Amino acid sequence: MATITDTITGAQKPDRLHFVIVGGCLGGLATGIALKVLGHNSTVLEHHPTPLLHDQRADIVAGGHALEFFNRYNRCQRKDISVPSTCRQYLDRDGYIIHTVTASHDMSSWDLNYFLMRANYDGISSPSAARSPNKTSHPRPW
């Protein structure tokens, strides 16, 4: 792999690569954001006919890894991405409760996570995820 020399530290870094990520949504966008931080380009191929998804209305558990990811890579003005919860319910397609878990955990919405990822990946803003004008780039890990 070709390398370039960092003009500030003199360290050798890999040359910028371009990745194509198939499957999109949250995992693909998270991968794309991490690759940008490393100085690479990426294209995320989503399986959706529109550039943004609308009205998913699904709540998801915001576990430690997800909260750590947003704490590290989120450059949007919005910093609150989860709320505490003591009960999680699973519903069938008709909306009836089929399982309940009583435990403390943080919850977030699928829509909010998606819009934050899009704002951080390619700058698409939404009412819930406006890009911060003073933080336009991600910190470099080296």
TrEMBL record:
Name of the protein in its database record: FAD-binding domain-containing protein
UniProt superkingdom: Eukaryota
PANTHER family per UniProt: MONOOXYGENASE-LIKE (PTHR47469), OS06G0597600 PROTEIN (PTHR47469:SF2)
SUPFAM superfamilies assigned: FAD/NAD(P)-binding domain
InterPro entries, sorted: DHP_3-monooxygenase, FAD/NAD-bd_sf
Species of the source: Podospora pseudocomata
